[in-house]
Amino acid sequence: MTQKIVVNNNFPTTKNEIESIIANFDSIDQYIAKGTRNSIKKTTLESGKITTIKSFKIPNIVNKFVYRFFRKSKAQRSYEYAEKLIKYSFKTPYPIAFVENKATISFLDSYYFCELVEADLTYRELVEVENWPNREEILKQFTKFTFDLHEAGIEFLDHSPGNTLIKQVDDNKYEFYLVDLNRMNFHNSMDFDQRMKNFSRLTPYKNMVEIMAKEYAKLYNKTEQETSDKMWFYTEEFQLKFQLKQARKKKLKALIGKK
């Protein structure tokens, strides 16, 4: 096995420290999120800074080969996209390092390190809690944040409820941090449909879409009605596909359970 470690020279840590954390990763019991394949843990570095570590588990048999020879790993893309976002003056937890483990002809696992951001909420809370304090104003500021991403040609493909951290920095001012960065496109410019489709995964609720569409229309050369209709069209399209996918999974589980 070979191990590749890339460390941000602007952050107070070393390759040796990162290597030691990976070697002892299983013994770190401070989980932020625990999934069947990927998980996120946190630990304190020698500098006193707290890092989160996202562990990307071993990919399937096809991607073992693809990631070994042809495509950048999810950890490397997360690290590089974080650097790009910061270069464009957008917020994301500060990238610290990434680690890749490889065999001779296959890719094993990878890890992305970034600085912990203590958020007040994520976009998910706005979806799940209708009376969240100052909810409409947060949605408006989030829409402006997304518009600015689009103006910079940044298409965040995982623009979904759990992937924007929100911090309140004043009585009526909020900052937005993107996380889970390994799927992004960078364009010279984005057309109207690309922009509207980028909102499709955020919420199933039309009243939220209408607030965002109204705000986006103020910033872009389209009417409120046209913006709302297009944003809702892509939202419904995504929700239908999502529900069909969930139904297929449920049916498959039922069939497996009968055997």
Automatic annotation (TrEMBL):
Q: Does the keyword Transferase apply?
A: yes
Q: What is this protein called?
A: Lipopolysaccharide kinase (Kdo/WaaP) family protein
Query: Keyword Kinase, does the record have it?
Result: yes
- UniProt superkingdom: Bacteria
Q: Which UniProt keywords apply?
A: Kinase, Transferase
GO terms (molecular function) for this protein are: kinase activity
